[in-house]
Amino acid sequence: MHVSPWKTLESRYIHSDRWLTLRADRCLTPEGRTIDPYYVIEAKEWVHVFAINKQSEVLITRQYRHGAGIICYELPCGEVEETDTSVVEAAKRELLEETGCEAARIELAGSSFANPGRQTNRIHSFICYDTATVREPSPDENEVLDFEFITINELFKLIEDGTFSQSLHIGSVFLALYRLKATEYLFRDIARPM
Known about the structure:
By secondary structure, this protein is of the alpha+beta class. The chain contains 3 helices and 12 strands; from the N terminus they run βββββββαβββββαα. The relative contact order is 0.17.
């Protein structure tokens, strides 16, 4: 079976502001079917930061997420802004703004699409090494969050019990862990299942 892209016959913008750009496409499939409308969210690129301190603990944040109406446990994260010179700079900025932390070294763990069925943006997941607090956080005016370093086992327990339940962040956690396994950086402390 051969999979081919759809052809976009027309696009019209339904809404566009700082937070959301929604367009409706009229599409033609390779099989000759017209799909109208097909809604697409044009979103900024996102960054997730898997930050580790010298004790091999992982930095997590907690904040209220109104869409689900829950206090969400996450990695430090945010949008890539026009003022950011790169996704690396966006990751560093978000880490510093949300937690007041900086890292001795940062590397890209990988990039993936947030939701390619409906959204245009990708998530760029970073690993920050030897992360430490250097100042007070300065989150955005609408952000109220707290943060702490926890062990990798504690993080796995939060994922398992559904407390750390943001699927995109879980993906970034495992992308970072996959990247780290070659060096055994964290795996020496992971409890093995029985």
